[in-house]
Amino acid sequence: MSGMLAGKVAVVTGAGGGIGREIALAMGRAGAKVVVNDIGAALTGEGKTEGPAQTVAEEIKAAGGTAVPNTDSVAERASAHNIIETAVQHFGRVDIVVNNAGNLRDRVFHKMSEEEWSQVINVHLNGTFYVSRAAANYFREQESGAFVHMTSTSGLIGNFGQANYSAAKLGIAALSKSIALDMNRYNVRSNCIAPFAWSRMTSSIPANTPEEKARVVKLQKMEAGKVAPMAVFLASDQAKEVNGQIFAVRANEIMLFSQPRPIRSVHMSEGWTPESIAEIAAPAMKHHFMALERSPDAIDWDPI
């Protein structure tokens, strides 16, 4: 197939449904040979089946593309390595990695269990590391490659009941930046997308209060397919000058996110004491304190 990704091999994790499926299909339409990875489990981890990955791979082939399914987990080093090896064994190389696999274990922080914490960290943050690390050697040797990672405004801005998910997603943004810095010399790029879309994962968000129900209604208007064009672009040679960036995609809107930088400084020539900090430094910086906001508070306009 011809297209923006013609001749390239893409690995898309968590591609059995939702955003991952749309990205895998779009990669196939753009000419990439695609490894469709999905363990075929519910968000809670039960009921593993080959079905979703196989189904999406068949959809890509039915549209004239090339694809193979893979059901390995991203959450362990060996199985994540197998995902990348699937690409190399079937197609001889790997050019693109989209780290999309995810899960949710939402719980207010003071009630969150260690298991709920580790299950989310293992899939999102560790999984992104394991899959990326498995591809890194190939990218370095061929002196080319593109990583596209899924972060979230829950981590970039904040949200209720998602300490595990927020920590993992903010960690992914930092990991992406580090990959971009370390591998830029090898023409390897690493960027993030914070997607706004209704998917199998977001469908588990509680909708009990009027505010929560209104939020879900807005999310349902944001189609998963709207995220795919940005992923294809970032994976393509057209994005060769784009590295270490964080984007958000919400319906027909694309946002570029800022990244933490100093916004205010105070200096005391003789050094600070706790008392002088309380009297001088804290009041001087207070006007610049970040508000205790959630994602819907900071991005408070309706999607177009």
From TrEMBL:
Domain Ketoreductase: 8-204
UniProt xrefs under PROSITE patterns: ADH_SHORT
UniProt-listed Gene3D superfamilies: NAD(P)-binding Rossmann-like Domain (3.40.50.720)
Protein source organism: Orrella daihaiensis
PANTHER family, per the entry: BLL2957 PROTEIN, DEHYDROGENASES, SHORT CHAIN
Entry protein name: SDR family NAD(P)-dependent oxidoreductase
Family: Belongs to the short-chain dehydrogenases/reductases (SDR) family.
